[in-house]
Write a structure and sequence with these properties.
The chain is 20% helix and 38% strand. By secondary structure, the protein is an alpha+beta fold. Strands 1, 2, 3, 4, 5, 6, 7, 8 and 9 form a nine-stranded mixed beta sheet that branches. It has a two-stranded antiparallel ribbon with strand order 10-11. Strand 10 and strand 11 form a beta hairpin. The two termini are 34 Å apart.
Length: 242
């Protein structure tokens, strides 16, 4: 299940010809942003009733005039608005599923008016650690944001969230697979604003799974076998790919 639009074009793996591991890293950060905005969205009255800090940080992903907290994927090169959180990658480790040298999962067969089409489905997994940097203009605001993030990933959004592409690809994220980790509280000088900025980091380990599809048409790779002759008998077997 997913609380998001499952056809989110920013979070789909795509065909095997379009697949790159760096896209998995970027899509993980985009999914994290979606989760946080969903937690802070003005529609979520349940979260607002449970936590009095949410109204002060309530934000909309799409409405710029309804943002009390800005979320960036990677450190912005130009203007930064405060308070904000920045999603970056601490590290990423590929997990070998041991299903074959090329991560092949299975083959799908479709019979259409133009003939038979075969789809090869491949899969991969990774553990991706995201670092969330919290930047605020006061220590109190920073602490509120840290508390909100702890509640978001520690209590509400620890399930599996699935994004599906129109091409059959999937991107699956399970946030917070390990204990949430907060770094030390710090202060930094913001030259453009000539004031102190209060910051803190938070590490979240996410389990990522991705499926991508390869379309194979024609008889080049697949052979249709209808029967196998044995000793004095005929054994019927289903159509398989070789």
């Amino acid at each position: 299940m997913s609380v998001f639009n499952t056809n989110n074009s920013d979070v789909t793996t795509g065909l095997i010809t379009n697949y790159n591991f760096y896209k998995v890293i970027q899509q993980t950060k985009t999914a994290m942003i979606n989760i946080i905005y969903e937690f802070l969205d003005s529609r979520n009255m349940l979260f607002k009733q449970d936590m009095e800090e949410i109204p002060s940080m309530q934000s909309s992903k799409t409405q710029e005039d309804n943002k009390n907290l800005y979320i960036y994927r990677d450190f912005p090169e130009t203007d930064r608005k405060f308070p904000c959180i920045i999603i970056s990658t601490e590290n990423a480790t590929e997990m070998k599923p041991y299903i074959g040298a090329d991560n092949f999962l299975y083959t799908q067969e479709y019979v259409t008016s133009s003939g038979t089409t075969y789809d090869d489905v491949y899969a991969g997994m990774a553990m991706v650690t995201n670092q969330i940097t919290i930047l605020a203009e006061s220590g109190d605001a920073r602490n509120k944001i840290c508390e909100l993030l702890f509640m978001c990933f520690g209590n509400y959004f620890r399930g599996q969230f699935i994004y599906k592409g129109d091409d059959g690809s999937q991107f699956i994220i399970t946030p917070a697979q390990e204990a949430l980790q907060f770094g030390s509280e710090q202060e930094a000088k913001e030259d453009s604003m000539k004031q102190q900025i209060y910051l803190q980091t938070m590490n979240i380990v996410n389990h990522i799974e991705y499926h991508y599809v390869s379309y194979i048409d024609g008889p080049e790779r697949y052979t249709k076998i209808d029967t196998v002759k044995g000793y004095g008998s005929v054994i019927e077997i289903p159509v398989i790919g070789l």
